Automatic annotation (TrEMBL), chain A:
Subcellular location: Membrane
Annotated 4Fe-4S ferredoxin-type domain residues: 142-161, 185-214
GO terms (BP aspect): ATP synthesis coupled electron transport
4Fe-4S His(Cys)3-ligated-type domain: residues covered: 81-120
Protein name from the UniProt record: NAD(P)-dependent iron-only hydrogenase catalytic subunit
SMART domains: Fe_hyd_SSU, NADH-G_4Fe-4S_3
Swiss-Prot/TrEMBL keywords: 2Fe-2S, 4Fe-4S, Iron, Iron-sulfur, Membrane, Metal-binding, NAD, Repeat, Translocase
TrEMBL record, chain B:
Species, as recorded: Mangrovibacterium marinum
Record-given protein name: [NiFe] hydrogenase diaphorase moiety large subunit
Record keyword Iron present: yes
MF terms (GO), sorted A to Z: 4 iron, 4 sulfur cluster binding; FMN binding; metal ion binding; NADH dehydrogenase (ubiquinone) activity
Domain of life: Bacteria
SUPFAM superfamilies: Nqo1 FMN-binding domain-like, Nqo1 middle domain-like, Nqo1C-terminal domain-like
Alphabetized UniProt keyword annotations: 4Fe-4S, Iron, Iron-sulfur, Metal-binding
Keyword Iron-sulfur included in the entry's annotation: yes
Domain NADH-ubiquinone oxidoreductase 51kDa subunit iron-sulphur binding: 311-356
Gene3D superfamilies linked to this entry: 3.10.20.600, NADH-ubiquinone oxidoreductase 51kDa subunit, NADH-ubiquinone oxidoreductase 51kDa subunit, iron-sulphur binding domain
Matches recorded under SMART domains: NADH_4Fe-4S
Length: 596, 395
């Protein structure tokens, strides 16, 4: 029931829905208005002012991103006033900015740089201010680098951390010329409540927030003939990497990616999806175990709902903010860390390699996984289980550095032994994917029948709403599972930590109706992760999501418990799910962290 | 420029003690909201705290705005350096302000009012609370449930800006919001809100007591009534004076100057500097028929005699803005730093005199694009000082 109103932009008459901003209306008319502080994922700030436009009859210019259209409005987006002002504003931003693009990590993918280029800011008359200020560079974190000299104070990171994640690690301090983006008491990021999710990086227009990169370390390892360098790739990377290589969002580049990794010189190119399948076996068994203890043995010490544990951003969040709920977490490590623990044990044994000569690298859509790999718990193999974690973006840089013409690459397959996976492993990359994969397996283990959804697609847990619910009734279970007969398995899925908070508050209040919840720190799940290509927005994430589900449907195997390599792993090495070896290698524990 | 000069006329309404405020309150609360709005509109009272928005219209818009929860907030942040007239009002005649707030609440349908008191005025809290307690008792006896609470500000100048003030009251950082929406629709806690300066409310009381005509008869067209002026600088008689609007600056200087007045800064740091040669042609009031000198916050009038360096004056203002800008928007945050450093660079000869023109253009951009009144008004003092005293900037 949207009312239409009539406006005019640059002489073009236009009918728009009431409530639309000038920026949205201009977009509809095919007119581009430059922006910096605006981001589709975030609330409106209206602080950079590069989007100003002229409204006929008004003395002052208006911020297009923040001004709603009104009936009869006459808008000019390229008048003399607008052009002069816009140029001034860009010049001002640059004067306060350490614009040393050639030595900047964001060189080539920076919104400020693009504006400076589009508007040809070739002279800089204003006094350089950046050089006079004492800026801090926070480089203590294994995940995030924060360089205030590159910050344009658009507050996108602040709004991201508050609005998408509800963490509030970043805030604005001081006023006037001293105004800056900082943390609680201006401590290092490593000391405050920050999940390392990297969403602030994904939403930062400049080089002020970037991932800590390990590109040179990985090149060094690859170049060392003594070392055997193994790489694993997370499911979300194959639906994001294409964007960095010039493809439109939603392009699946699995085969090309594998070929590129081989050409980069990795000794073995394997798949994190393999341990995603393994996670499902371990976690599914753990869930059934907890259900049995609660429903059959009435053991009050067992905690339900059980929460998934494969998103390290989410893990750090709960460790900081809901540390009295840690027993709800599945003890399963993330697929990355399961993989790491197996590489230097199972893989090393099978391939007769010395674990100390193996370097294990992972390509992740995630910056929190860098922190996770550095956790002291993650040395189950007796070595650092995962040596280097690279984001999708860092992999793209390596491919470009190696002179690989990605579009022309042939497709290649993962190497064997920990390279095989099912569609269930693939959808780990989307919000709801772990839940769907787990249900496919758990339901079948209990009833002997496939989940009652067309083509195994459990659509209620798919989608982009912050929290989604599903309820599956178990009937006629197989022998041993009689206690589940008639039980409605209640599940919920949340992505973005603001939504996780809602589920956690229910648990804390004792009102959570669920048996099993899946939580992913990032919007959209891993495919919207903090290490994925920039830009990100709801449309791009929707494309990546489509791609991931398409990849799943095309897989010959759709269920984790049918992955032959996983079955082999249990047969030859692990024994059985939740067994002694599993416990040692694949499960972990959590710690309480500071709340401030 | 040819126009009539108006004589400087003193008025004495604001600080006149009105023992009968209880009767005025009782009487006015019995009137229908529309009648009160009409009375305010016909008085042509305009806001004394900033933009000079017609007070009657503000109340009307808020009364008509949809919403069950509404607020009336008295802006007592008084952050403009050198002004302290709101403090005087709250010290000497607080009941006038409280009465006007209760009437406003009656008009717009508010249950709760706040006085946003400048942090430095903390010492006033106790006596103000006494006045509020007494006022609450009277209100209750009239069957009026309206209550008033004091909210103590944090000391940032920008928190006097109405939307930054709301943010600050909501426990957030004091940063101005985007407008529209305006407070009359979306104000404190996103509810329709009337926010008025202390002095505006005191004038409203005068109108309730004496009627709109008495107020309207003071001043001149478009600038009705009287106004408090904080007179400071090179003057033998600094202090607070209530004067009718519309006087010529020449008249003012004759009354308050020390015989050697070189320029007057009208409206504080965010106002304009008027040089001697323009005294005669300048009238003090709101925009309209007068020669465009508006009265930003405070009604501050600072006189400078020939011993003063206009460069230093501007330098002071720019330092103030550079520090007091909330820092969120580019034109103001960076613009103020550039202006502050820019005039220094010209003075030191590091930039050519022509750089002043680049800075003048920059202030034009700031006026056009800054998010709030602070950044928009830096141009006022900058351009009026640089244009009138260019040599002092260079040599
Ligand atoms: C930077 C800035 C500071 C302000 N400070 C004050 C102040 O201290 N007191 C005040 O009454 N209004 C101040 N204002 C004006 C208010 O935003 C608002 O217009 C005023 O309170 C409305 O009341 P009035 O209509 O009664 O004038 C300020 C405006 C700006 C832009
Ligand atoms: S942040 Fe952007 S503009 Fe700044 S130095 Fe880096 S690439 Fe250049
Ligand atoms: S990494 Fe995530 S939690 Fe940490 S500051 Fe950035 S957005 Fe906030
Ligand atoms: S760190 Fe990046 S996102 Fe945050 S304010 Fe600075 S430029 Fe904007
Ligand atoms: S104009 Fe200045 S004070 Fe106003 S919002 Fe912008 S930075 Fe803040
Ligand atoms: S994009 Fe509109 S003000 Fe920044």
């Amino acid at each position: 029931m949207s009312t239409k109103i009539n406006i005019n932009i640059n002489g073009i008459a236009l009918e728009v829905d009431q409530g639309k901003t000038i920026l949205e209306a201009a977009d509809q008319a095919g007119i581009i208005i430059p922006t910096l502080c605006y981001h589709k994922d975030l609330c409106i700030a209206g602080n950079c002012r590069v989007c100003v436009v002229e409204l006929i009859g008004q003395k002052r210019l208006s911020a297009a991103c923040a001004t709603p259209c009104e009936e009869g409005m006459e808008i000019r987006t390229n008048s003399l006033h607008v052009r002069n002002s816009r140029k001034h504003i860009i010049e001002l931003l640059l004067s306060e900015h350490r614009a040393e693009c050639t030595s900047c990590y964001k060189n080539g993918n920076c919104e400020l740089q693009k504006l400076a280029s589009d508007y040809k800011i070739v002279t800089q008359d204003f006094i350089p201010l950046a050089q006079q200020k004492k800026y801090t560079i926070d480089q203590f974190s294994p995940s995030i680098l924060k360089d205030d000299s590159k910050c344009i104070r658009c507050q996108r990171c602040v709004r991201t951390c508050a609005g998408l994640q509800g963490v509030n690690a970043l805030s604005v301090a001081h006023k006037g010329d001293r105004m800056k983006i900082t943390t609680f008491f201006e401590k290092a990021i490593t000391e405050v409540v920050c999940t390392n999710c990297g969403q602030c990086i994904n939403h930062c227009p400049t080089g002020a927030l970037v991932e800590r990169n390990y590109i040179e370390e990985v090149w060094d390892a690859i170049s060392d003939p003594e070392l055997h360098v193994v790489v694993q790739t997370a499911p979300a990377v194959r639906v994001g990497l294409g964007e960095e290589m010039g493809f439109p969002p939603g392009e699946r580049v699995t085969g090309r990616m594998v070929e590129a990794l081989k050409r980069l010189g990795f000794n073995s190119v394997l798949d994190t999806d393999f341990t995603a399948d393994l996670t499902i076996i371990e976690e599914g068994t753990e869930l059934l175990e907890r259900l049995k203890k609660t429903l059959k043995e009435k053991d009050p010490s067992v905690k339900l709902p059980m929460a998934t544990s494969c998103s390290p951003g989410w893990i750090k969040y709960i460790e900081h903010l809901y540390s009295d709920c840690l027993e709800h977490l599945s003890t399963c490590k993330s697929p990355q860390q399961m993989f790491g623990a197996l590489v230097k044990t199972y893989y090393a044994e099978s391939r007769s390699l010395k674990p100390e000569k193996i370097v294990s690298v992972s390509i992740m859509p995630c910056t929190a996984k860098k922190f996770e790999a550095a956790r002291p718990e993650m040395h189950a193999s007796g070595y650092t289980d995962v040596d280097y974690v690279l984001t999708t973006r860092e992999l793209a840089i390596m491919i470009k550095q190696a002179g690989i013409d990605f579009a022309k690459l042939p497709e290649s397959s993962f190497d064997r032994l920990m390279g095989q996976s099912s569609g269930a492993g693939v959808i780990f990359g989307a919000t709801g994917g772990v839940m769907e994969a787990a249900l496919r397996t758990v339901y079948e283990l209990v009833t002997g029948r496939e989940v009652p959804f067309e083509k195994l697609n459990i659509t209620p847990v798919r989608g982009s709403e912050g929290i989604r619910e599903a309820c599956i009734k178990i009937e006629n279970p197989q022998e041993g599972w009689e206690f589940l007969d008639g039980v409605e398995l209640r599940c919920a899925v949340a992505h973005g930590l603001v939504h996780a908070k809602q589920l956690m508050d229910q648990i804390k209040a004792g009102t959570s109706p669920y048996h099993f919840i899946e939580i992913m720190a990032c919007p959209g799940g891993c495919l919207g992760g903090g290490g994925q290509p920039i830009p990100t927005n709801p449309e791009i994430r929707a494309k990546r999501t489509e791609a991931i589900y398409a990849e799943d449907e095309e897989m010959p195997l759709r269920k984790s418990h049918e992955n032959p390599e996983v079955l082999l792993l249990y047969k030859n090495f692990l024994g059985h799910p939740l067994g002694k070896k599993s416990h040692h290698l694949l499960h972990t524990s959590y710690i309480e962290r500071n709340r401030y | 420029m040819a126009f009539d000069t108006y004589l400087l006329k003193r008025a004495d309404f604001i600080f006149k003690d009105e023992e009968d405020w209880k009767n005025i309150l009782t009487r006015t609360l019995k009137l229908p909201p529309n009648a009160i709005i009409n009375e305010l509109m016909s008085s042509e009272l305009k806001g004394r705290g900033g933009a000079g928005f017609p007070t009657g219209l503000k109340w009307k818009l808020t009364a008509e705005a949809p919403g069950n929860e509404k607020y009336i907030i008295c802006n007592a942040d008084e952050g403009e350096p050198g002004t302290f007239k709101d403090r005087e009002i709250l010290t000497l005649v607080p009941h006038k302000v409280l009465t006007a707030m209760a009437v406003c609440a009656h008009v717009i349908g508010a249950q709760q009012g706040y006085i946003y008191l400048r942090g430095e005025y903390k010492y006033l809290v106790e006596q103000l609370n006494q006045a509020i307690d007494e006022f609450h008792t009277i209100c209750q006896s009239l069957g009026c449930q309206f209550t008033i609470r004091i909210f103590l500000g944090s000391g940032a100048y920008i928190c006097g800006e109405e939307t930054a003030l709301f943010e600050s009251m909501e426990g957030k950082r004091g940063e101005p919001r985007n407008k529209p929406p305006y407070p009359t629709q979306v104000g404190y806690k996103n509810c329709p809100t009337v926010i008025n300066n202390v002095e505006t409310l005191a004038h409203a009381f005068t109108i309730f007591k004496y009627g709109a005509k008495k107020f309207y008869d003071l001043g001149v067209q478009y600038s009705r009534g009287s106004k408090l002026f904080s007179v400071s600088g090179d003057t033998p008689k600094p202090g607070i004076y209530e004067l009718e609007l519309g006087m010529s600056l020449e008249d003012f200087v004759n009354e308050f100057g020390d015989g050697d007045t070189k320029a007057v800064q009208v409206g504080g740091a965010s106002g304009f500097l008027v040089p001697r040669k323009k005294f005669k042609a300048t009238a003090i009031g709101y925009k309209g028929k007068l020669s465009g000198i508006s009265l930003p916050t405070g009604g501050s009038m600072m006189l400078f005699n020939s011993s003063r360096s206009m460069y230093n004056v501007l330098d002071n203002y720019l330092e103030f803005f550079r520090e007091e800008s909330c820092g969120q928007c580019t034109p103001c945050r960076v613009g103020c730093q550039q202006l502050y450093q820019g005039i220094k660079a010209v003075k030191r000869g590091e930039k050519p005199a022509g750089y002043l023109d680049k800075l003048l253009k920059l202030t034009e951009t700031m006026k056009l694009t800054a998010k709030c009144g602070l950044g928009q008004s830096v141009a006022n003092s900058f351009s009026s000082i640089v244009e009138n005293f260019r040599e002092e900037m260079i040599y």
